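Record type: ASSEMBLY
Status: queued
Input:
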Amino acid sequence: AQRVTQPEKLLSVFKGAPVELKCNYSYSGSPELFWYVQYSRQRLQLLLRHISRESIKGFTADLNKGETSFHLKKPFAQEEDSAMYYCALNGQGAQKLVFGQGTRLTINP
Amino acid sequence: NAGVTQTPKFQVLKTGQSMTLQCAQDMNHNSMYWYRQDPGMGLRLIYYSASEGTTDKGEVPNGYNVSRLNKREFSLRLESAAPSQTSVYFCASSEYAVSYNEQFFGPGTRLTVL
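Status: finished
Output:
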């Protein structure tokens, strides 16, 4: 079975502080993992995917197969990072995503 | 391009009433999806359509039906609404190829069942 767990429903940090949103997954094969973000009054959109190994808006995420984690990190949080963040998994050959419960990130000035 | 559009944006129903949520995409994507979003539960897949002419159940299909009308349109029907179906509903589409491709989401429909 495929499962994604985001242990923090709410996360609040101050502007300029580092931020880490946790994501753990359960899947026996080689997963594809993603982070989606939903800013206030905007649509849910892709932030980054592990295959691309890219940094978007200063965020990075590394797939750790040993710990089955895909945590999202940013060294210096900005107020515009306040949003709802979802971690998602796509299993091999599946044409659908499994989403985590989401973490609401608030950046305080 | 409008991307993924959904109608209506808001709806209030009484228990037992029926309604259809409409979704259309103009990106020529093969795959379309319906999710519900509830606080603390995240996004849960209701139904999906990997390609025109096919539909499959997701994680929470009970109480819903879907129709893939054509490549562009994918509707979600509640035959007899219940308060437990109060939620925000999102439609999404993607072009599934050899490897997974990005899902594009609609703006959502906020449904309240009294």
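Annotation: The radius of gyration of chain A is 13 Å.
Annotation: The domain at 3-108 of chain A is CATH 2.60.40.10 (Immunoglobulin-like).
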